[in-house]
Amino acid sequence: MADASRKADRADRIDSSVPHSARIWDYWTGGKDCYEVDREAGERIRAVFPDIVTLARVGRHFIGRTVRYLVEEAGIRQFLDIGTGLPTVDNTHEVAQRAAPESRIVYVDNDPLVLAHANALLTSSPEGATDYIEADVEDPETILRQAARTLDFDRPVAVMLMGILAHVADYDGAISIVRRLVEALPSGSYLAVRDGTDTDPRYVKGLADYNRSGAVPYRPRSPEQVAGFLDGLELVEPGLVSCPLWRPEAQGAGATAFSPLYGGLGRKP
């Protein structure tokens, strides 16, 4: 009964009159968990920046390649995925547990629609575990405290910040959040970052139109600013680059190497 009440509460909190980034990305990647207002906002951005659908897929491919590297080459078995978004194909736990069934994953988001779909993310291999935290990226203390129910912070953890830091208005504030998360990690842990940059004027204009829609603003930063999130860490080759250039695979998204999405991975010494 309590679970039913929580689901009803989450449904009541979903505002279908204002576009939301998670639902718009769901629309661009072919999902159905979006509303007309999201499809309209998505098409407005697409009119200015036609490559946005490809870019959304580039972002998903980057997550998959990052998780596979962390599991198969770095030996990571614990993941803290902050700003999860709506469930889609090859979520973090699916990629990780396919390679290492004992992997443990904690997802974090504060969007009611994402939370309403959380059960799709709470499946797990018998050997591993998944959990879901309702929290804001700007509250790292709550995230770390609740994640400790599932993750052992005495062992390496990979923190995933995929497309979430651009929602933090103040750059210094975003840096502070990252520093606090990394501070809580033991040596041998990793930080994975992916965000939109200001390298393509069409993308910047499309996001400006999106930000005027009433949705939570998304602010592209320079590649140098995104790289700043990884300061103090040992960068995994090739460093912070346009996402299609980060350890590409033969079955990649087929996108131009000049995508304004930049990503990188760093190891805590």
TrEMBL record:
Keyword Methyltransferase carried by entry: yes
Transmembrane segment boundaries: none
Biological process according to GO: methylation
One Gene Ontology molecular-function label: methyltransferase activity
A matching Pfam family: Methyltransf_19
Keywords, in A-Z order: Methyltransferase, Transferase
Name of this protein: SAM-dependent methyltransferase
Organism: Streptomyces diacarni
